Amino acid sequence: MFPFFKQQAHTDAYYQSLLDNLMQTQDNLNLAYQNFENATEPELIDSYIYELNAIQMRYKFLLCRLKSYETK
User: Fold this and answer.
1) What is the pLDDT along the chain (72 residues), one digit of tens a residue?
2) How far is residue 31 from each of residues 1, 15, 27, 50, 55, measured CA to CA in Å?
3) 28-48 as b/e, with b when 16 or more CB fall inside 10 Å?
4) How far apart are CA 36 and CA 24, in angstroms?
5) What distance lies between CA 31 and its chain's CA centroid?
6) Measured between alpha carbons, how far apart are the two ends of the chain, in Å?
7) What is the pLDDT of residue 9?
8) pTM score, two decimals?
9) Which long-range contacts link 63-68 to residues 24+ away (Cβ below 8 Å)?
10) How far is CA 50 from CA 17, 35, 47, 53, in A?
11) How far is residue 1 CA from its own chain's centroid?
12) Burial of 16 by CB count in 10 Å (0-12 exposed, 13-18 middle, 19+ buried)?
């Protein structure tokens, strides 16, 4: 009815790749949180903290890329 109110569907390969990477990173983040919650050894706890920080940084990076791509 009002085509100027519809958002364009992003169907190109780069956008889909960003979405796939973001979803995979979200799964990795959930797994890292589960591992962290179940860790009992101090070395493993430290390891999961570093892993969580790295995955969170990757997630933020991908989210920013996705948002900047959508605003083009």
Assistant:
1) 455 544 555 578 999 999 999 999 999 999 999 999 999 999 999 999 999 999 999 999 999 999 999 887
2) 44, 25, 6, 14, 11
3) bbeebeeeeeeeeeeeeeeeb
4) 18
5) 13
6) 24
7) 56
8) 0.80
9) 63/22, 65/18, 66/15, 66/18, 66/19, 66/22
10) 26, 12, 5, 5
11) 34
12) exposed
Residue 52: what residue type? L
CA distance 53 to 70: 26
Place of tokens 């179940």: 38
5, two tokens: 């109110």
Considering only CA atoms, which of 7, 3, 6 is closest in space to residue 72? 7
| Lookup: tokens for 8 | 């364009």
What the block records as the tokens of 11 is 């169907």
Which tokens go with 3? 């085509």
